[in-house]
Design goal:
With 129 residues, the protein is mainly beta. 12% of the residues lie in helices and 55% in strands. Strands 1, 2, 3, 4, 5, 6, 7, 8, 9, 10 and 11 form an 11-stranded antiparallel β-sheet that branches. The termini are far apart.
């Protein structure tokens, strides 16, 4: 019984030390959050793991993730209407993979292909129709 209790307490301490903390880094003049940062860890050892930026209306402008302090994974940007504006993919702080640009109507009008930060191909879908 004591071993189970010790394991449970240890697990709870581990989970608490790995938790993510949300901070409003900037606000719009109307009081709504502009930049919200999510940090993992505590004090000087804390690392940014995600960032969300909002329009003054409160709608999402973009959201992206970080790994080891640099952009990593999918970043999604939005028009103020809520429609996707573009999607980027990052790997260790450099663009890698496909980047899609959307028009206000929600249709993809351009594809950009990156290989570790270097643009290797561009497809302009607006000229395909």
């Amino acid at each position: 019984m004591q071993l189970r209790l010790l394991l449970l307490v240890g697990l709870l301490v581990l989970l608490a030390s790995c938790s993510t903390h949300k901070y409003v880094a900037a606000s719009h003049p109307n009081g709504k959050p502009e930049v919200v940062v999510y940090m993992k860890g505590k004090g000087e050892d804390a690392l940014k793991v995600m960032e969300k930026v909002y329009y003054p209306s409160g709608r999402m402008e973009y959201v992206g993730r970080f790994e080891n302090g640099v952009e990593h994974g999918e970043w999604v940007y939005y028009y103020e209407s809520g429609t996707k504006k573009f999607v980027e993919h990052w790997e260790n702080g450099v663009e890698h993979g496909i980047h899609l640009d959307y028009g206000p109507d929600g249709k993809v009008y351009r594809e950009l292909y990156y290989d570790r930060g270097r643009l290797v191909k561009e497809v302009d879908r607006s000229k395909l129709n």
